[in-house]
Amino acid sequence: MPLDKTDTSRHITIIGAGLAGALLATLMARAGWRVDVYEKRGDPRVQGYAGGRSINLALTERGRHALRMADADDAVMRQAVMMRGRMVHALDGRQQLQRYGRDDSEVIWSIHRGDLNITLLDLAERAGATLHFDRRLDAVDFDASVARFADEQAGGFRDVGFTALIGADGAGSSLRGAMQHQEDLGERTEFLDHSYKELEIPPSAEGGFMMEPNALHIWPRGHYMCIALPNDERTFTVTLFLPNQGDPSFASVRNGRDAKALFLRDFADAVPLIPDLEQDWEANPTGLLATLYLDRWHLGGQAVLLGDAAHAMVPFHGQGMNCAFEDCVSLARHLQANTTLDTAFAAFEAERKPNALAIQEMALENYVEMRDKVDDSGFLLQRELELALQQRHPQRFVPHYTMVSFMRIPYAVAQHRSHVQRDLLMRHTAGLASLDGVDWKAVDADVDTLLPVLEDAAG
Fold first, then answer.
1. Residue 101, CB-side half-sphere exposure with 13 Å CA sphere
2. Residues whose CB falls within 8 Å of the CB of residue 399, separated by 6 or more in sequence, listed in order
3. Residue 237 predicted with pLDDT over 60
4. What's the distance, CA 122 to chain centroid?
5. pLDDT-based confidence at 455, cuts 50/70/90?
């Protein structure tokens, strides 16, 4: 049976007031729990957002569902910019829009990280959560159930008793470090041999967008690529992904002048749009890309990790935030449904861990697709067949991107079906230049045999 509302165990202490921490705080406070949230940075509503990276993110149906659960969707969507698909920029300047879905009912949304964070913090506070800023987790005494926080403003330390700690404090999680001191979590971090640099396309002189706003722009160049996402203030955040070694790479592109030369050669149509390219390159840090794996996410009923603190991933499927929001909904549900924190945390980990692993793997695969395949004729023919089979078998053949971004079926299910479908597409387009040569009878038979009806899991 659910925990009694007067039970003193109905208190959680969340480490991190970022997107996941603020959303979970809202969900749990609305469910009648006492919630304290500790954040090492200052209150962004007072001193401005200081996220330091990735100022916009891709919001998909998984994330929107979580926002709807917290009655946050309307407030968030007022700030969102629709992206219908990938606008692929060829080396010769030609552009082609590759839709993500069938129509405007299947789109993703670009959302400003800072604005979203502030919206969620306001909702958490309104729901009854207590927010503590400028409090950095320094150490945890699990035997005494006491967390020590450094006061980043006044100095000194404060000891706080806790019932359960929830780590929503990102890839560099302080709580994960404290848990690891207590018990080996099997932590492994695998760095990608690529890194990234962020630049900006400002608004036009008239205050509008400089490019098509309702698309995720991508300049695929084989082993590297550039992307641009729209912001509601009419700017674009441009991100260049390069190898760490080789040519071109972050080893060979050493300064703003080198970067300008690279863009003139490989992304020429973007150069007039980025007036501060050299200055941005010099001023902005180079970001690392890594995947974090853990063998376990919780310590009994005392502590549990979610989001990037448990399963950081590379950004190439736009699912990091959406996956973290799904974690919040799942953990809130298990906390309500289980009689002890230990069983709730264990059930949460059992449900989410295989799905987190699936999207981590799919995110790595999507990098290769984005940088190397979106302008490949074979890939485009497979995409054509994919759309045709979606029309012919709507209950069985559901495109990979649709399953990941427009549905809420488990990531692991989407991954398995995607592998089956990819093999089918490759076999039935092998050696063909168009769909005219497709053996439709054989394709239909394969679909019926290999792909069971996909039950709607969005309820």
1. 19
2. 386, 387, 390, 421
3. yes
4. 22
5. confident
Cα 285 to Cα 55, 61, 261, 288: the distances in Å are 14, 31, 19, 10
d(CA 138, CA 155): 12
pTM of the model: 0.92
Domain ranges in the chain are: 11-80+113-188+292-365, 191-289, 376-450
The residue assigned the tokens 């992206």 is 83
Extended strands (E) in 154-302: 157-161, 165-167, 188-201, 216-220, 225-230, 236-243, 286-293, 298-299
Report the CATH architecture of 11-80+113-188+292-365.
3-Layer(bba) Sandwich (3.50)
Structure tokens at 126: 């309104």
Most confident of 40-49, 286-295, 359-368, 375-384: 286-295
261-279 tens-digit pLDDT: 999 999 999 999 999 999 9
Please name which of 361, 353, 343, 338 lies closest in space to residue 305, comparing C-alpha atoms: 353
Instruction: Report the mean per-residue pLDDT for the chain.
Output: 93
CA distances from 187 to 141, 179, 183, 314 (A): 20, 11, 11, 17
Reading the block at residue 300, the tokens are: 């009994």
Owner of token pair 């403003």: 153
CA distance 333 to 368: 35
